[in-house]
Specification:
Strand order of the largest sheet: 1-2-3-4-6-8-9-12
Oligomer: single chain
Order of helices and strands: EHEHEHEEHEEHEHHEEEHEH
Strand content: 15-25%
CATH architecture: Alpha-Beta Barrel
Number of domains: 1
Bound molecules: zinc ion, manganese (II) ion
Distance between the termini: 15 Å
Shape: globular
CATH topology: TIM Barrel
Radius of gyration: 18 Å
CATH superfamily: Divalent-metal-dependent TIM barrel enzymes
CATH class: Alpha Beta
């Protein structure tokens, strides 16, 4: 069993510094922002930064990298100017991924702000079609993240993710990320073994496990179905070690990179501890069913 485990890693000092830190912490997978995630406009990546990132990554033990998009982007924003800005910013994010050689851009589908779910889904798909048309030669996958369904956030049901992908012309460019704390808060019980199996089967039936390219491994500070998005250290929340043991011992998800987005300090030593906890949950083969 060789899980690709890692965490969201700080880019303080430059994107290449994230590689240094992730490698030092022993990560096999890493998530980063490619820019300040609370700003619309940031300067382009410099040639130097790009080259340094790529060289360091090649020399590292990191096998999987995903970029998380800016929190400002909303691909179904009701405000026309924010929608336009969001689409432009998403194209820029895809472009930056391309420059860095990163194959996945993870993003939250969007918040419909009162227009309703159906309209929101339509606009998200329309946004993605425009975005893909404007980036025809980029080999970067648009990765939809399941959400907790806070407020008017879309993406808290597998059906909503499927409906978005159905309306996207270039389905090859779409992939999906499960966030454990989000789906748990959205009402998917991955804690108990029997229910966990049902949830994964449901995902496979509706979206298809082939589309699942990443899992955000976060315990939840809030209970099942609360629809509140609060991440907790592995084993310390409502999902508990029991729930993460289900994932760590699921052969079907063994190859899917697993990334922590749990609370951390500057040195990210908490991530090391959470990875140790996850590894400790892996059962020897004879004990598994
Ligand atoms: Zn996210
Ligand atoms: Mn997440
Ligand atoms: Mn979250």
């Amino acid at each position: 069993m060789n899980h690709l485990l890692g965490a969201h890693t700080s880019i303080a000092g430059g994107v290449d510094k994230a590689v240094d830190l992730a490698n030092k912490l022993g990560f096999a997978a890493m998530q980063i922002f490619s820019k300040n995630n609370n700003r619309w406009n940031t300067k382009p990546l410099s040639e130097e930064e790009i080259n340094s990132f790529k060289t360091k990554l090649e020399k590292s033990k990191i096998k999987f990298v995903v970029v998380h998009d800016s929190y400002l982007i909303n691909l179904c924003a009701a405000d026309k100017s924010i929608l336009k800005k969001s689409r432009e910013a998403f194209i820029d994010e895809l472009f930056r991924c391309g420059q860095l050689g990163v194959k996945y851009l993870n993003f939250h589908p969007g918040a419909h702000g009162g227009k309703g779910e159906e309209e929101g889904i339509k606009v998200i798909a329309e946004s993605l079609n425009i975005i893909h048309e404007n980036t025809p030669n980029l080999n970067v996958s648009s990765m939809l993240e399941l959400t907790a369904g806070q407020g008017t956030a879309i993406g808290c049901r597998f059906e909503q993710i499927k409906n978005i992908i159905d309306l996207v012309d270039d389905k090859q460019r779409m992939s999906v990320c499960i966030d454990t704390s989000h789906i748990f808060a959205a009402g998917y019980d991955i804690k108990t073994r029997a229910n966990y199996k049902k949830v994964i089967k449901e995902f496979d039936d509706i979206i298809g496990l082939a589309k699942l390219k990443c899992i955000h491994m976060n315990d939840s500070k809030k209970p099942l179905g609360s629809r509140v998005d609060r991440h907790e250290h592995i084993g310390k929340g409502f999902i508990g070690k029991e729930g993460f043991s289900n994932i760590m011992n699921d052969k079907k998800l063994e190859h899917v990179p697993k990334i922590l987005e749990t609370p951390k300090g500057k040195k990210q030593l908490e991530d090391k501890k959470n990875i140790r906890t996850l590894k400790s949950l892996i059962q020897k083969r004879q004990n598994r069913n």
